[in-house]
Amino acid sequence: MSMSGFARYDQSVLARWWWTVDRWTLAAFGTLMVIGVVLIAAGGPAVAVRTGLPANHFLIRHLALLGPSVMIMIGLSMLPLRGVRVASLTVLGIFLPLLALTLVMGSEAKGASRWIYIAGLSVQPSEFVKPAFAVLLAFLLTRVKRRAEPISLLIAFGLWLLIVALLMLQPDLGQTVLTSAICFGELFLAGLPLVLVFGFAVMGCVGLFGAYLILPHVASRIDRFLNPEVGDTYQIDRSLQAFANGGLTGTGPGQGIIKHMLPDAHADFIFAVAGEELGLIVCLIIVAIFAFIILRGLLRVLGDSNLFVLLASAGLVLQFGLQALINMGSALHLMPTKGMTLPYLSYGGSSLLALGVTTGLLLALTRRRNELGDDL
Question: What's the rounded Cα separation, in Å, for the pair 47 and 370?
Fold first, then answer.
């Protein structure tokens, strides 16, 4: 009997899950959740009071959604490979139509219609579409490689094109770039002809340039990044000031002052709150945790003979890692600002539930299948 309470010979569902799931990655996710609660408890009240809400509004809502997110994560992590595919198809079947509905009945904020209200909860369908797309794309590319089915490649391309079109109509360039990066990464790993991969890369570059020319808010963010004197850089200036104030060890939880000036201190700029109140050392630990999850996820499947497992896991860790990189890079002014949450650290409402889907699917894919049979 181990400290977990599950014996090696125990064949119950929970016991088999415990002995096959990657407990190090599970612990890393748990650590991010705890840090996130601390940061939202520190940064949330300033934003809540400033917007006329009760001081603990964001913390209470975050905790209320964190529980269901953990339940989704654990539930999905128990699925066999067939269940992973079915779950992903179900999620896409639900949220892809909702993504389209945001264009006609979505809630507009900051010039974009990205959210839709369901049972009083503001939901961003693109957050759920991303992990489902990563898994289904892996399935289609595996059929292309193993069964030489060109129709699967056409379906994959059409699905990517549909999602990108819906995202750009919102418009949401950040999620478009993230979805395209997943597609490009899986195409590359699948070993498809370099001409095809290069073609996708060229299309992506053309799309970015087109967005710069067509979308004023995209051009404004890029211009301000390249030349801060051409526009308002208030949030970035405050964010950098927060990191400067924090130094190595920070001012202490709840003791920061910049959060009172940052409109998105609880969400897009939660990393700045960490920089001021917890300091450089803790920020580096946070970066290390994200890096550990990415590397661990890749190493768990690197030698796997199942191409679907390799591609799907790579797509999910790429999505998770790039989202973290974009958020932290924006807060440090290493790239143009983009409204994207920091996984498990930012307050994000329904994005917590979507993270439960992403992490649950990743944990299911990286389980040790040799102990459970080939059908996992």
Answer: 49
- Residue 167 phi/psi, 5° resolution? -70, -40
- The pTM of this model reads 0.90
Distance in angstroms (rounded) separating the CA atoms of residues 55 and 144: 53
pLDDT digits (tens, 9 = 90+) for 237-284: 899 999 999 999 999 888 889 888 888 888 889 999 999 999 999 999
Phi then psi for residue 70, to 5 deg, are -65, -40
Task: State pLDDT tens for residues 39-73.
Answer: 999 888 988 888 889 989 999 999 999 999 999 99
- On the CB side of 320, how many CA atoms lie within 13 Å of its CA? 36
Domain boundaries, the chain: 15-368
Beta-carbon contacts of 306 under 8 Å, excluding residues fewer than 6 positions away, are: 81, 369
Query: Is the backbone peptide bond immediately before 171 cis, with ω within 30 degrees of 0?
Result: yes
Q: How far is C-alpha 231 from the chain's CA centre?
A: 29
Residues 6+ apart with CB under 8 A from 190: 141, 142, 144, 145, 307, 311
Q: What is the 3-state secondary structure (H, E, C) of the chain?
A: CCCCCCCCCCCCHHHHHHHHCCHHHHHHHHHHHHHHHHHHHHHHHHHHHHCCCCCCHHHHHHHHHHHHHHHHHHHHHCCCHHHHHHHHHHHHHHHHHHHHHHHHHCEEECCEEEEEEECCEEECHHHHHHHHHHHHHHHHHHHHHHHCCHHHHHHHHHHHHHHHHHHHHCCCHHHHHHHHHHHHHHHHHCCCCHHHHHHHHHHHHHHHHHHHHHCHHHHHHHHHHHCHHHCCCHHHHHHHHHHHHHCCCCCCCCCCCHHHCCCCCCCCCHHHHHHHHCHHHHHHHHHHHHHHHHHHHHHHHCCCCCHHHHHHHHHHHHHHHHHHHHHHHHHCCCCCCCCCCCCCCCCCCCHHHHHHHHHHHHHHHCCCHHHCCCCC
User: CA-to-CA distance for 245 and 268, rounded, in angstroms?
Assistant: 19
